[in-house]
Amino acid sequence: MIAPFISAYIWNTERYILALRFFIIGMSANLFFGIIEAFGVKIIDTHGQGPLGLINFHIYSSMLISMSLLLLLYDFFYKRIISSLSVRSVMFLGFLWQIFATQGRTGQGLLLLLAPLVIFLNIKKYRYIYPTLAIIIVGITISLSSKAINMWYTAYSQFNSIISGGYHYSDIGLRYLFAKSGFIMFVTHPFSGVGIGQFRKTFFDLIADHKIPEVPQYVHGFVGPTSSYIAFFSEFGSLGVISILLLIYASYKKIICVKDKNIRNFGLLFFLWFFIGSFSDTIIWREVIVVPFLIFISATNVNAGYNENN
Fold it and tell me: What SS3 class is residue 11?
């Protein structure tokens, strides 16, 4: 219900930028609590996932931090969200430290994937490229802890083991098994899927039928679709596939019709951030991610208007 209300609001470029500024300021408050946590003051129990701040799961925290970084990176060219270069740079380095100090591979991956796009979208502004790249390089050099490097190396090793030998018990191995299970559910229930919320029950039924291997007892509580796409095609079948494709199309169509180039670019960033991030978890059902996505996609209807041909 939030999207129609946001779209109906009379947005203009200044209000959209103000909303982006509030988003970054809010995430800066989260960064503050992350810094406190790094010094040993426990605000919430993050279960060893790193200085997440007030968001207690590494995927959601790292995704939101990555978007803050992408917006600040864009603002090194745009210079309207956070007008002060020094404040913008301090925020950028702070978020960069936070994201690589957590276990949030999703946010780290999104940052590394979409940061080149931000630079590409501003490629004509040559004089700003090299200082921006310098900030990125320095920040990554400072922020890439041995913990983050080891985490990515472990993920690579687990993925390589799956390619060469199939399922084995590990984080990546379980994701592979859940994806395989979702595909089996889709094949056996192609039209309407296994039903809303039935992934877990059907997963254990597949184990009982010896169609997939058993998993350790202590991970039974974590069984579920580990991707929005797995959830939709396993639990909703072809209807789910059609629904999510329509959502992707409608979101993209809304963005490309915007005349204001920068607002269109911000919308594109949120679009890619959300739908690529949805591969890592059932993001589409998580309000902490869905609400920012809906706000900044719906609010692209600024008074600059749509292209008349669309």
Answer: strand
